[in-house]
Amino acid sequence: MTTKDNLAEAFAGESQANRKYLAYGEAAAKDGFPHVAKLFRAVAAAETVHALAHFRAMGGVSATVENLKAAIDGERHEFEEMYPGFVATAEAEGAKAATISLKNAMAVEKIHHGLFTEALNAVSSGADLADAKISVCALCGHTVIGDVPDHCPVCKARAEKFTEIV
């Protein structure tokens, strides 16, 4: 394997470890172990440091226009190519929770594609996005600029489930 291959594998592993440790931290907190939860969150943050260092070392970060184009391509791949097959498999296997999770993600990736396209249009003309509230549904990841809806259009969660991103 090449160094670039090794960096790509390390980036994937560190990224996944970050997300797993955050989930483990939530479980530890729920189980009544707040200090173990804090440790999981701390190590998750360290894994993010590693992942970002590997991603930068492999040349993964460019100028904003190129980063937005890469994000748009990635989101398009997910909702057009990746998730449809995953959903079909989950449905065929009768995996209800997986089907819901995958369908929600597929719907949200399409929304992300649109948001990144809007950002690319702004940046390409030399402008930033308008300063507006951006919120994310804690249940499905639906991302909204501006006021949150009474109910999430993807998963139907109530407005209280949205978290504002600062």
From TrEMBL:
Signal peptide: none annotated. Residues 1-127 form the Ferritin-like diiron domain. One of its GO terms (molecular function) is oxidoreductase activity. InterPro entries: Ferritin-like, Ferritin-like_diiron, Ferritin-like_SF, Rbr2/Nigerythrin, Rr_diiron-bd_dom, RUBY_RBDX. Gene3D superfamilies: 1.20.1260.10, 2.20.28.10. Pfam families: Rubrerythrin, RUBY_RBDX. SUPFAM superfamilies: Ferritin-like, Rubredoxin-like. This is Rubrerythrin. It comes from Magnetospirillum fulvum MGU-K5. The lineage of its organism: Bacteria, Pseudomonadati, Pseudomonadota, Alphaproteobacteria, Rhodospirillales.
